Structures are given as C-alpha cells and as structure tokens.
Amino acid sequence: MTIQHSEMQEARAASEVRRFLMQRGSGGVADRTFAALMLGCALSIFAIVALILGILILRSRLSLHEFGFSFFLRSDWDPVRGSFGAVPFIWGTLASAFLALLIAVPLALGVAVFINEMCPRALRAPISFLTELLAAIPSVVYGLWAIFVLVPIMRRSVGPFLKKFFGWTGLFHGPNFGIGLLTASMILAIMVLPVISSIARDVIKAVPNTQREGVLALGATRWEMVRIGVLRNARIGIVGAVILGLGRALGETMAVTMVIGNHAAIPKSLFAPAYTLASVIANEFTEATGDLYLSALIEIGLALFLVTIVVNAIARLLVFMVTRGNTARAV
Amino acid sequence: MPHRPSRANVGRRQAANHLFSVLAILSTVLVIAPLFAILVYLLFQGVRSLNVAFFTHLPRPVGEPGGGMANSIVGSGIILALASLLGIPVGIGAGIYLQEFGGGKTLANAIRFTADVLNGVPSIVMGIAAYSLIVVPQRHFSAFAAGVALAIMMVPTVTRTTEEMLATVPNAVREAALGLGIPKWRTVMTVSLKTASPGIITGCMLAFARVAGETAPLLFTAFGNQFWPTSLNEPIAALPLQIFVYAVSPYDEWHRLAWAGALVLIVLIMVSVTLVRVVTGRGMLNGGH
After folding, report:
1. Which residues of chain A have a pLDDT value below 50?
2. How far apart are the C-alpha atoms of B5 and B33, rounded to whole Å?
3. Do A81 and A37 fall within a single domain?
4. Residue B22 CB neighbours (<10 A)
5. How far apart are CA A199 and CA A186, in angstroms?
6. What total number of domains does chain A contain?
7. A84 and A224 together in one domain
C-alpha cells in the first residue's frame, strides 16, 4: 500500500517535472514555429482529402448538372450521342469484386489460420513474408502475367471445364475468349488476398490465448478450437479485413483493365467481357472528346472516391474495435 | 452450449478436424502458388528479353527490332524522386505531430483515421485529381503532375509508420533531453527522430516501393513520351506506363520489351522491400497496399 503510494507520488512528481520542462522548452519562437509546421503537415492530410473531393466535384459539375442522380441509374454509355449512364460499370465493378472476394476470402482465412494456429514456428515468418510479397507485385505486372498466362489457361482448360460441368447453372454460357469477368475476378482475387490475410492474421493474433485454452480444455479438437475460440471471437475484425479487401477490389485498375474485356454492357455470363468504374476511367480518359464525356468520367472517379472512403472507414472501425478496443470482443 | 463434446460423434469431429487441417494447408499452398507462377514466368521471359540495349536505347517504332526503355527508367526515377521529395517530408512531419504533439487529442485521432482512409483510395482517383488540379490548368501533361499524384499516395503510409516508429522511443529519452535544457524542437529532431530513424527509413522505402509500380495515376499525368526527359513540365515516360502500353499492344517485339521492363521493375521493388526486411530484421510489410 505504502509502496504503491510512494510510486504514485514519484510518477506524479516526474510528470510535473516533465510538464515544467516542456513548458520551458516550448516557450521559444523556434519551438512554436516547429509545432505549427508539424501541425501543418498533419492538417495537410485533411487538405488532400478536401482538395480531391472539391476538384472532382468541380470538374464533374457538367455531368452532375446534366444527368443528376440518374447517372447512376442509366445503363447506356454512348459517347457519340452524348448519353452517359454508369450502370454497366457499377455492375461490372460489383460483380468482379464480389467474385474476387468469393475466391479470396476462404483462402485468406485459411492462410491466416494456418500461420497463426498450425504452422511450425520456423515457417511462420517465411510464409507470411511470401504472402506479403504478393502485395508488392505491381498491378501492371499482374496484368501482364494475366494476359499471357492466365487468359490462355482460362480459354483452353478452365473455361471448357466449367462449361462442361457447371454449364447447367447458366453462369457459363456464351463464347469463352479467356478474357472477361471471371478472369478479371481471378486476378483480382490474387491481388486482394494479401490485404485480407494480413489483417485477418492481426485480428486472429489479438484473440487472447485464454479463449483457445478454454475451448481446448473442454475437449475440443483443433478445428473446434479455431472455430469456437478464435474465428468467432475475431469475426468483427475479419469482417473488417474482408471489407478492406473489398475497398481494394473496387478500385483496382490496371490488371482488371487488361483482362476484363472492356465492354460497356451488363455481362450476361461469367465469360462475358465487362467494364469496371476504374477501368473505364483508365481506358477512355485520355481519349475523351468533349467536355461532357470527360466530366462524366470524372464523376465516375468521384463516385469511386466516395464509395472507397466509406468502405474503408467502415473497415478501419471494425478492425480497430477488435485489435485495440476491448468491448467488441464480448460475444 | 451447442458444442457439448460427446462420445457419439468423436469420429465425425476427428474427420472435421482433419478436413480443416488439409484445407488450411491447401489454401496456403494455393496462395503461394501464384506468387511462384508469376515470379518464375517473369524471370524466364524477362531474362530472355533483357539486353544492354534495353538499358541504353530509346524505344523504336513498331516493326523495327531492338530498342529499349532507357528513357522510361530515367523518367520513373525523376517522377519517383519528385514524389519522395514532396511526399516524405510532409508524411514525416504529420507523423511527428501525431506522436510528439498530438497525444490522445481528438484532432490527432481524426488525422490518423483520415490517413488510414486516404490509404485505401484507389490510385486512379489520385490520377484524376492530379489531372484536374495540375494538367487542366496548365493544358499539358507533365512529370510534375505525376510526381504530385504519387506524393499524395506516399503521405499516409509515411505518416503512419513515422508515428508508429516514434512511439517506440522511450519517454525517458525525451525527458532526459528536455532535462538538459534542449528545446523541444531539437529534442524531436535530434533525439526522437534519430532514435527512430531506421524504422522511419523502412517506412519511406515501403511507401516508395508501393508507388514505384503504380501505373494508374501516371496514365493522365505523366502520359508517356518516346524521348529523353528534358524538363518537369512536359509529358514524361515511365517504366510501369511503358509496360502497360507494350503489354496491350499486338506486337511480339513489344511484348518482349514489356516482360523485360516488368522484370526490371519487380527487381527494383523486391530488392528494396527485402533489403528493408533484412536490415530491420522485422516484418514491416503491414497491409501492403
């Protein structure tokens, strides 16, 4: 009791000394200038977001005025006749992102669980390093590889296989050129994998060991331990990781542009060419003739900006709740 | 408790357990397989296509064999230097504010959050923003616009790593410096920053590696150029951009050059990432956007 008391006193004294020193230290002009400069740097992050938002609204006002909200409800994209609607791109973006997550999420969770719960300690670092190297490969290199390796594989082997055995689902009809929605989703899946698995690994690691031990002590197998003790406790953070991957998938540009086929129509099959919000900008921006055309493309960029900001904000909050807050873990 | 262990279904539970183990291992293999598939194929195609001319010559027109990407390599260097020059100081400054001045204030939390969210904004949006801000008023594409677009992308990464690294500096060290009567700004610059510098350099290298491969923000800022760069105020060639143009072209000769370019680009990125990891001896590749 007395020891605690004296420790507290010491701590208080130390903090008072520190405050005194800080006050004395921050009295100078140099110090105030320095603090203001650093604050300026920090505020510039707000400024960047505000600037991007402002300039995108300004440059897309022509299209905003012309079409209003119907821009996001119209499905015709005809630059020649000056008619612009974003539905095919929204469709393509959502479909490719959804398919990519469908492929990537189970794999990413598998890797995260493997690294945290099963992997021998010596292999842990190399395997996580390898999965993260995937994130270091530039989008354009993925695209290059996809054009020359993945597309032929899809055209010759995977496509016909899917058509033969899953043709009855109606998802795989129409000609299979190798490029199209499915190929784009596959390359997208590879690209979002490291994002999801690294965050999932963090949140799984944040689950206290007592949870695992408790479940094991009840006689659970390892799978039951992972399911009940780990995944269930980490689920909010895992949802956050998935949403973060979604944000990445929505905005991914180059690799998708190179293999999705770039056709502004709602795809009727997984083999059909499609178009995403990001890829229409990449493809048509420098060729856009006329102010309305350019402004419509910038409006698509604005939509992409707002959507990814919201998606990322939600994901960050969810991940934060699990890895740093304690309340969210109460099941 | 729905998961009461009972003797009756031990076999089924064991089977589920084995199935799960197999699936987890399988998914790990499936994730690492594309990495090797890509790297091995890239190495194979790239080494076959690389030669001295690639590093010394300008691109040739269609149909003429040979030529290289020398101007793109120089152009990428210029753009990346510009982006680092603009982005890294701002990022480090913001990181210093968050750790040394911000404390637990609401403003600091809001900035932290905004930086994380900005980190997730697609790179193509940065491209349009830089186009609208710089290219439109100037009426021409420029290396400067490309540098700004990439700099904006570097800021949040550098900010967050700087903050994290400064947080590892013990308070006692700061207090000792302040106790010697050193003003706060000198304490931050010579004590905190210096102590945390290996980690901060790591963060900067990772931010650099991340933007080095970016293509989308360069499409309508750098735009590309067939000749040597002569000023920051004109369209400029860049390695990722040239890879993209050659990859989607219908010519075999250009495909060959695209592979060579991709190999050079990836070696540049992998070397910096691996170097960072070896030098600092820790896994700093968080998120890896």
Report:
1. 1-2, 25-26, 326-331
2. 37
3. no
4. 10
5. 20
6. 2
7. yes
Taking the alpha carbons of A198, A149, A249, A238 in that order, is the dihedral positive or negative?
Answer: negative
Give yes or no for B92 touching A (CB within 8 A). Answer: yes
Same domain, A258 and A190: yes
Q: Is A64 part of any domain?
A: no
Best of B3, B17, B31, B40 to substitute, by most chain A Cβ atoms within 10 angstroms, is: B31
Amino acid at A222: R
pLDDT in tens, A281-314: 999 998 888 889 999 999 999 999 999 999 999 9
Domain membership of residue A19 as a residue range: 2-59
Distance CA B232, CA B277 (A): 33
Q: Are residues A17 and A163 in the same domain?
A: no
| Chain B contact for A127 (CB, 8 A cutoff) | yes
Q: In terms of domains, do A97 and A196 share one? A: yes
CATH number at residue A259: 1.10.3720.10
Residues A238 and A317 in one domain: yes
Residues of chain B with pLDDT under 50: 1, 283-289
Q: Complex ipTM, two decimals? A: 0.88
**CB-based contacts of B18: which residues, under 8 Å, 6+ apart?**
none
CB contact under 8 A, A132 and B285: yes
- Asked if B30's CB is within 8 angstroms of A136's CB, the reply is no
Contacts of A224 in chain B (CB under 8 A): 3, 13, 16-17
Query: Tell me, what's the pLDDT at B60?
Result: 84
- Nearest-angstrom CA–CA distance, A142 and B214: 12
Q: Last residue of a domain, which of A59, A80, A106?
A: A59
User: What is the amino acid identity at position B244?
Assistant: F
Residue A65 counted as domain residue: no
Chain B contact for A193, CB < 8 A? yes
Is any Cβ of chain A less than 8 angstroms from the Cβ of B5?
A: yes
Q: Does B271 reach chain A within 8 Å, measured CB to CB?
A: no
User: What is the radius of gyration, based on Cα positions, of chain A?
Assistant: 26
Instruction: State which residue of chain A sits closest to B219, comparing Cα positions.
Output: A282
Task: Indicate whether A48 and A190 sit together in one domain.
Answer: no
The closest of A221, A235, A222, A217 to A321, measured between CA atoms, is A235
Domains of chain B: 54-280 (1.10.3720.10)
Residues A92, A214: one domain?
yes
pLDDT in tens, B39-63: 999 999 999 988 888 898 888 887 7
pLDDT of residue B158: 95
> Å from B64 to nearest chain A CA?
22
Whole-number Å distance between alpha carbons of B73 and A239: 41
CA distances to A118, A183, A214, B4, B5 from A220, rounded to whole Å, are 15, 40, 9, 9, 7
The pair of three-digit structure tokens given for residue A192, joined into one six-digit string: 């979002």
d(Cα B44, Cα B52) in Å, to the nearest integer? 17
Half-sphere exposure of B150 (CA within 13 A, CB side): 34
**What chain B residue is nearest to A52 in terms of C-alpha separation?**
B129
